[in-house]
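STRUCTURE:
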């Protein structure tokens, strides 16, 4: 799966370079990055010998290590970290959603903020809560995810609501803070 997705991403990147239209190049580059992101999630899920009931924290920790290398320069003082917490297991469908949500929220935090990016996971009562916080200035006052969100946050919102969960953006935290809830 990873090789097929990588081939598609490379094809889009080649098309992007050949386009004379800046808007088309930009759209193709974004599509290629999204496909590569999905490939990364799948690689960590299936490339590590996924079994039903895989430990979610182990999966997210591995994904964060990969994102650290993919999104940040090795000389950067910024880090991506998983907060300590209780171990829990999820099935493969829930892990795919979890991985996609973490990837999108962390990518946004790296792209639009500063400092360390911290991911916290909590599980209970059939729900997985994913909290991603950074040390940046946070979302602007009046930020409305329905109106102002880019594709990544809209994707996270869709994944959450499709499961019966929610996405909450805290505009008053004084730093970047997004909380996604998946119902499992």
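SEQUENCE:
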């Amino acid at each position: 799966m990873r090789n097929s997705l990588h081939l598609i991403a490379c094809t889009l990147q080649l098309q992007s370079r050949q386009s004379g239209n800046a808007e088309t190049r930009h759209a193709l580059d974004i599509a290629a990055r999204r496909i590569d992101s999905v490939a990364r999630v799948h690689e960590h899920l299936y490339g590590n010998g996924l079994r039903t009931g895989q430990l979610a924290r182990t999966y997210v920790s591995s994904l964060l290590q990969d994102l650290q290398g993919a999104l940040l320069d090795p000389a950067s003082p910024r880090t991506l970290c998983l907060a300590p917490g209780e171990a829990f297991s999820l099935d493969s469908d829930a892990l795919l959603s979890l991985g996609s949500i973490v990837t999108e929220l962390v990518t946004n935090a790296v792209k639009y903020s500063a400092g360390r990016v911290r991911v916290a996971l909590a599980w209970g009562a059939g729900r997985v809560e994913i909290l991603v916080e950074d040390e940046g200035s946070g979302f602007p006052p009046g930020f409305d995810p329905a109106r102002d969100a880019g594709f990544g946050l809209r994707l996270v919102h869709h994944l959450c609501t499709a499961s019966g969960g929610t996405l909450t953006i805290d505009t008053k935290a004084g730093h970047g803070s997004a909380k996604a809830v998946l119902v499992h």
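REMARK: The domain at 53-183 is CATH 3.30.565.10 (Heat Shock Protein 90).
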